[in-house]
Specification:
Strand content: 5-15%
Strand order of the largest sheet: 2-1-3-5-4
Helix content: 55-70%
Number of helices: 21
Distance between the termini: 103 Å
Structural class: mainly alpha
Shape: globular
Number of strands: 5
Length: 504
């Protein structure tokens, strides 16, 4: 064989090796980019929402008291809005941090859950032999603007998205392999989803799994063993049931009334006058905005996929399309809607986008078209980087200038060091309570305030500015002396002025 012949024989192998190396480099770079995007600077800004401050309070109190059963706020009120799984995760990270819950501690479980969701999307497609789709889908999910924002926020929605995705992918794997073990993993993840969000999580897992199974029965060989049908729900009940029954018993039925009725049934039916109602189509424009910058690309690829019959040829595309569609339909049936609730649909959208993009690229014969497509993709990633740099260095500091309460709380505790009680009157700030630490108490009735102020000992009150004059007129047993105002410790005018007073 001539040297030239040897060269020809090695060319396919060398091309294969070069392609594999390129995919490895691309995957490594994408992984580093996503990790930096979701984890860098988690603690650079103060807690800025009620959800974050409540999670921080619940977790810190678990560490301080050793009572991990029922979430309890610093003012002693039981927090029954959500099950405790996220607070447990924050408390574990806080324990590793020396028993102290900080900004990065309370956000880390959500950020790690975001990385898990991105990794699951990538790993699923990579295992299917779809390296290009894997990278595109993973990057699209990680950089969809709302997914990135909430993954960097101490909220339960991204962890819920991750465990729902685990449950769905394990269910798919079990049906393809007729494996009970994978279905047990699916049930375990669904049980964890219930401990994160409540039974509503099953409404996102179950219908998606059923629709996917019915559709795939027409396209390929999938099987659901009878044992899985029985054992899956039993695993969910065994994991989540004990805590729910125990919580309802120790709260004398209050948990059932507050969590199940007000925060679950009333939100779905819109029967509570305290909760806003939204039209059925609410999630469509929300999704178009919150999935940016990928929305135009997704719509174009979906149109191309429908025109070319991609649905019938690509099981991974079907899985993504079914997951996203069913999730949006289920959530649209509820009267009360929030943009965060839609996050479990994002992995399905990313799967559909990545698989359709890979198929579209494979169908192109003009190298110039492929190069332009890659340039557009990289350009969108560049816009994401610029957008988050603006958020990190400009928008978030400006918001913190209005919302920060750390310095105000420090001044309050200088005058009223623990164990002195600080009262919050006719204003509830979970963020201020977290920075104050225990003991704090929230009051809304004038009679309660007057009774407490007339008791022995020094008393310290924080209230909105508009109530100060009335308090001085009504609470005549003590003279209220102003010590500080919130605006003295913010760089921007706060949305609501708070005044710290001492009763003398």
């Amino acid at each position: 064989m001539t040297g030239r012949g040897i060269d020809r024989s090695w060319r396919p192998w060398l091309a294969f090796r070069s392609e594999r190396a390129a995919h490895r480099v691309g995957a490594s770079g994408a992984g580093l980019f996503v990790t930096t995007l979701l984890l860098a600077g988690l603690g650079h800004r103060e807690l800025y929402s009620s959800h974050e401050a409540r999670a921080a309070q619940n977790a810190q109190r678990m560490l301080d008291t050793g009572e991990w059963g029922i979430p309890v706020l610093f003012d002693g009120r039981i927090d029954l809005q959500k099950p405790p799984a996220y607070y447990w995760a924050v408390a574990v990270v806080g324990w590793l941090n020396g028993g102290q819950v900080t900004e990065w501690v309370v956000r880390l479980p959500a950020a790690l859950a975001g990385l898990l969701a991105v990794g699951l999307v990538y790993g699923h497609l990579r295992r299917e032999g779809r390296p290009t789709a894997a990278v595109i889908s993973a990057l699209a999910l990680a950089t969809a603007c709302h997914f990135t924002a909430i993954a960097r926020t101490a909220r339960v929605d991204v962890p819920l998205t991750s465990v729902i995705l685990v449950s769905l992918l394990a269910f798919v794997r079990g049906c393809r392999n007729s494996s009970i073990a994978w279905h047990l993993i699916s049930g375990s993840a669904a049980g964890l989803a219930v401990l994160l969000k409540g039974p509503v999580a099953l409404a996102l897992v179950g219908p998606t799994a059923v629709v996917w199974f019915v559709v795939e029965r027409r396209f390929g060989s999938v099987r659901l063993p009878l044992a899985s049908v029985v054992l899956g729900p039993l695993v969910v009940a065994a994991l989540a049931g004990p805590w729910f029954f125990w919580a309802d018993r120790v709260t004398d039925g209050e948990f059932l009334r507050v969590f199940f009725w007000h925060h679950t049934v009333a939100r779905f039916t819109g029967s509570s006058p305290l909760l806003a109602q939204h039209p059925t189509w609410y999630y469509l424009p929300r999704l178009a905005i919150d999935f940016l910058p990928w929305t135009p690309l997704l719509l174009g690829l979906l149109f191309w996929a429908a025109r070319t019959g991609q649905w019938t040829r690509d099981p991974a595309f079907r899985l993504g399309a079914i997951s996203a569609t069913v999730t949006v339909l289920v959530l649209s049936a509820a009267k009360f809607k929030r943009a965060d609730y839609l996050l479990p649909a994002y992995p399905g959208l990313a799967l559909a986008l990545g698989t359709a993009a890979e198929a579209w690229l494979a169908a192109r014969r003009e190298r110039l078209t492929v190069r332009r497509a890659k340039t557009v993709f990289l350009g969108l990633l560049g816009l994401v980087v610029v957008g988050w740099l603006v958020m990190f260095f400009i928008v978030e500091p400006a918001t913190a200038g209005k919302e920060t309460k750390r310095a105000f709380a420090r001044v309050i505790r200088t005058h009223a060091p623990a164990p002195h009680l600080v009262l919050q009157f006719r204003y509830e700030s979970h963020l201020l309570s977290f920075h104050l630490g225990r003991p704090v108490r929230t009051l809304v009735e004038w009679g309660e305030l007057n009774d407490l102020l007339t008791g022995p000992g020094p008393h310290f009150v924080v209230m909105p500015r508009e109530y100060v004059f009335a308090a001085q007129e009504i609470c005549t047993g003590r003279r209220l002396v102003e010590i500080a105002r919130l605006s003295d410790f913010t760089t921007e005018e706060p949305e609501r002025e708070l005044v710290f007073l001492r009763a003398e």
